[in-house]
Amino acid sequence: MKGVVKIIIILGLVGVLALIRVYEYKFFYDPFMYFFEQAYQSGETIDFSFEMFFNVFLRFSLNTLVSLLILWVAFQSWGIIKFSGVIYLTFFIVLFPFFVYLMHHVQPQDYLAAFYVRRFLAHPLLILILLPAFYYYRLQRSVAD
Fold it and tell me: Where residue 110 falls among pLDDT bands split at 50, 70, 90?
């Protein structure tokens, strides 16, 4: 794939990540999105349910899929995709149970901790680390050869 085509496809996939974020209120049930805008000041609590946890899982899965596609377009290496998949899976296995635990055991005044754990799950933050890391790895490997 030529460099310009890769950049256009990657920008399109970044656009997909942005669309997931823009339409989060419309397509995903997540009471945290509303909680810190209005309910937190009034002292309300969050009504957490299976639906909320499923929607966080769904957003994580969609963001992971698009992020892996970005990595594939950028590097076209199954090794990078497999390694990234393991990183994403480990990230999910560690953070999701922690998020569920926080939601069930944290007091309403301490919801901020759960909010930030959810943010790591619901937003594509890992791609911001993996893309430059693999690019740097490729640069170092080509210099060494």
Answer: confident
Two tokens at 84? 């990234």
Half-sphere exposure of 107 (CA within 13 A, CB side): 1
Predicted confidence (pLDDT) at residue 140 exceeds the cutoff of 60: yes
- Which token pair is 10? 């990657």
How far is the C-alpha of 96 from the C-alpha of 128, rounded, in Å?
20
Q: 125 CB contacts (<8 Å, ≥6 apart)?
A: 119
> Which pTM was predicted?
0.86
